[in-house]
TrEMBL record:
GO terms for molecular function: cysteine desulfurase activity; iron-sulfur cluster binding; metal ion binding. Keywords: Iron, Iron-sulfur, Metal-binding, Pyridoxal phosphate, Transferase. Belongs to the class-V pyridoxal-phosphate-dependent aminotransferase family. NifS/IscS subfamily. Gene3D superfamilies: 1.10.260.50, Aspartate Aminotransferase, domain 1, Type I PLP-dependent aspartate aminotransferase-like (Major domain). InterPro entries: Aminotrans_V_dom (IPR000192), Aminotrans_V_PyrdxlP_BS (IPR020578), Cysteine_dSase (IPR016454), PyrdxlP-dep_Trfase (IPR015424), PyrdxlP-dep_Trfase_major (IPR015421), PyrdxlP-dep_Trfase_small (IPR015422). Its cofactor is pyridoxal 5'-phosphate. Pfam families: Aminotran_5. It comes from Halobacillus karajensis. Its EC number is 2.8.1.7. The gene is iscS_1. It comes from the Bacteria. Residues 4-364 form the Aminotransferase class V domain. The keyword Transferase applies. This is cysteine desulfurase. It catalyses: (sulfur carrier)-H + L-cysteine = (sulfur carrier)-SH + L-alanine.
């Protein structure tokens, strides 16, 4: 039985071309990019080229790109670093109830340090209301952090509208764009954000690297102490092979973005159509019109997510949930709780399927068939 991977929103397989570009760097480029000798200069060239190429892809200046260990560190640096550096201007932060835990836990930490956080609600479609941002905004607000695409539901947020609202206000605008970066065309000027977090392993790049876009002039405090790498914003010797891998992954998605979007939307529609043909009872969580092509979050009435994921896995299907599954208990998804209420059945009977590079059309049909068989068996 072939195993089928439908969990690309958690992580994605590394593209063969990325591996091919990284291997020579591992073998031949071991110098420290901060060293002035020829070995260091060779590494520095790869680092500088990667930074320039990544910046170019989002319409940024290379000086505005800071390499990190991934999306979590990028979110932490953006949120905690900005809050600490701007505490003299105020201690109020605005975010949403559906953020990734990299953001939520960062703002919870700041709350423990005396900052005040406003958590914006979402409607049943999983979207915030821009008017809620306007109502929450205060003179002492120093940071607004709203993700572009939710990692559990795939629902897109009105980032452009929020950016327009914040024009002229002192608050910096940060967005976790980890789930959006591979499929949405990102330009920092038109988007209007000041800080933007990206992770490599979501776009078929290597794990252990990401970057934070920091608009020039943004006041931010480093969270690490050591050398003066990344223009004193992130100490530590840079991961040169991973930078090369990330650059290659970025070049691939930029060349293939429209193809990927079309293909993954087809996969999603095919998957849902097959479930309907099998007469499996289900509901899609979040407005299908406002979700990214690669993610669908499905509620299976009368089911339990822990039981579902276990049986899917035994059937060779890899999927996931926002729920934290432990032995004998399931913690409801905080995202679905925000959408429907903490006691709603959807918080514990929903599964996220996410499509990507590891899939083909045959996989999708077979996966939907196996999922249907599991549901029917458990009913």
């Amino acid at each position: 039985m072939k195993s089928i991977y439908l969990d690309h929103a958690a992580t994605s397989p590394v593209h063969p071309n990325v591996i091919a570009e990284m291997m020579p760097v591992y073998k031949e480029v071991f110098g420290n990019p901060s060293s002035v000798h020829q070995f260091g200069r060779k590494a520095r060239r790869i680092l500088d080229e990667g930074r320039r190429r990544i910046a170019y892809g989002i319409g940024a200046n290379e000086k505005e790109i800071v390499f990190t260990s991934g999306g979590t560190e990028a979110d932490n640096l953006a949120i905690i670093g900005t809050a600490r550096a701007n505490i003299s201007k105020g201690k109020h932060i605005i975010t949403t109830t559906i953020e990734h835990h990299a953001t939520l836990h960062a703002v919870e930490y700041l709350e423990s340090q005396g900052f005040e956080v406003t958590y914006l609600p979402v409607n049943e479609n999983g979207r915030i209301h821009v008017t809620d941002v306007k109502d929450a905004l205060r003179e002492d607000t120093i940071l607004v952090s709203i993700m572009m695409v939710n990692n559990e539901t795939g629902v897109m947020q009105p980032i452009n509208e929020v950016a327009e609202l914040l024009q002229g206000h002192q608050a910096y605008f940060h967005s976790d764009i980890v789930q959006a970066y591979g499929l949405m065309d990102i330009n920092v000027t038109s988007l209007g954000v000041d800080l933007m977090a990206v992770s490599s392993h979501k776009i078929n790049g290597p794990k252990g690297i990401g970057f934070l876009y920091i608009r020039e002039g943004t006041i931010l405090e480093s969270l690490q102490y050591g050398g003066e790498q990344e223009r004193k914003r992130r100490a530590g010797t840079e991961n040169i092979p991973a930078v090369k891998g990330l650059q290659t992954a970025v070049e691939i998605i930029e060349a293939e973005r429209s193809t990927y979007k079309e293909k993954y939307l087809h996969y999603k529609e095919l998957f849902l159509q097959k479930l309907k043909e099998e007469e499996v009872p289900f509901e899609v969580n979040g407005s299908e019109e406002s979700t990214i092509e690669s993610i669908v979050n499905i509620s299976f009435p009368g089911m339990n997510v822990e039981t579902l994921l276990t049986n899917f896995d035994l059937s060779g299907i890899a999927a996931s949930s926002g729920s934290a599954c432990t032995a004998g208990s399931v913690e409801p998804s905080h995202v679905l709780s925000a959408m429907f209420g903490s006691e709603h059945p959807k918080t514990t009977n929903s599964v996220r399927f996410s499509f990507g590079f590891a899939n083909n059309e045959e996989d999708i049909v077979e996966a939907a068939t196996r999922v249907s068989q599991v549901i029917k068996r458990l009913t």
